[in-house]
Amino acid sequence: MPFLYKYILFYKPYNVLCQFTDSDPNAAGRSTLKDYIQIPSVYSVGRLDRDSEGLLLLTNDGQLKHRLTDPKFAHPRTYWVQVERIPDEKAINRLRQGVEIKNYRTRPAKVRLLPAEPELPPREPPIRFRKNVPTAWLEMTLTEGRNRQVRRMTAAVGFPTLRLVRVAAGPLRLEALSPGEWRELTAEEIEDLRCFP
Question: What positions carry a catalytic annotation?
Fold first, then answer.
């Protein structure tokens, strides 16, 4: 019987670990991917922190996974980022040029201030609300994926991240799914991924 590759697009909810088993035996009751996806032998392509949400690709195609995660290929990932207070142009330009994080300078990024709050499902639990502190939404496209990078970048320029949602990875977009839902990629989407530069 021929080996079948699987390609799964998942909307990871907030507070879900980006793995199928919880490696911390003392942290009972934490949700993992296994609570949503019962397909054996697929693994996430890249990661999303437990407190981040959005698009996650899972596959058993090791060659494609390597190509999509190897930093030398610089595949873009786009996030909608809610930050505390309203970033000025100086802060946004610093994010665009790259910021220093723990003796490492991030690659240049595409960053823009969104004109309005994007349409997203409400987060459970909701973010903390502070009446006297406004918030804003940024769209950030990065070509690297270091640990908690977006959060560290916005904090480095003085605007802490409150909510983080990955809405695109390469040619894939987070559309028509609700948190916790998944679907298999279409043949066209798989081909687009394979041909993506």
Answer: 49
Is the domain of 60 the same as that of 93? no
Tokens in use for 137? Answer: 């939404």
Backbone torsions φ then ψ of 96, nearest 5 degrees: -65, -40
> What one-letter code names the amino acid at 109?
A
**128 and 188 part of one domain:** no
pTM over 0.90: yes
106 shares a domain with 165? yes
Contacts of 40 (CB under 8 A, 6+ apart): none
CATH number, domain containing residue 189: 3.30.70.580
Show the tokens assigned to 9: 């697009």
Q: Is the peptide bond before 125 cis (omega within 30 degrees of 0)?
A: yes
DSSP strand pairing (161-169 vs 53-59): parallel
Instruction: Tell me the pLDDT tens digit for each residue of 91-116.
Output: 999 999 999 998 889 999 999 999 99
Two tokens, residue 177:
């799914």
Predicted confidence (pLDDT) per residue in 20-65, tens digit = 888 777 777 789 999 999 988 899 998 899 999 999 999 999 888 8
Is residue 89 located within the same domain as residue 41? no
Count CB-CB contacts under 10 A for residue 31.
Answer: 16
Amino acid at 130: R
Start-to-end CA distance of the chain, whole Å, equals 32
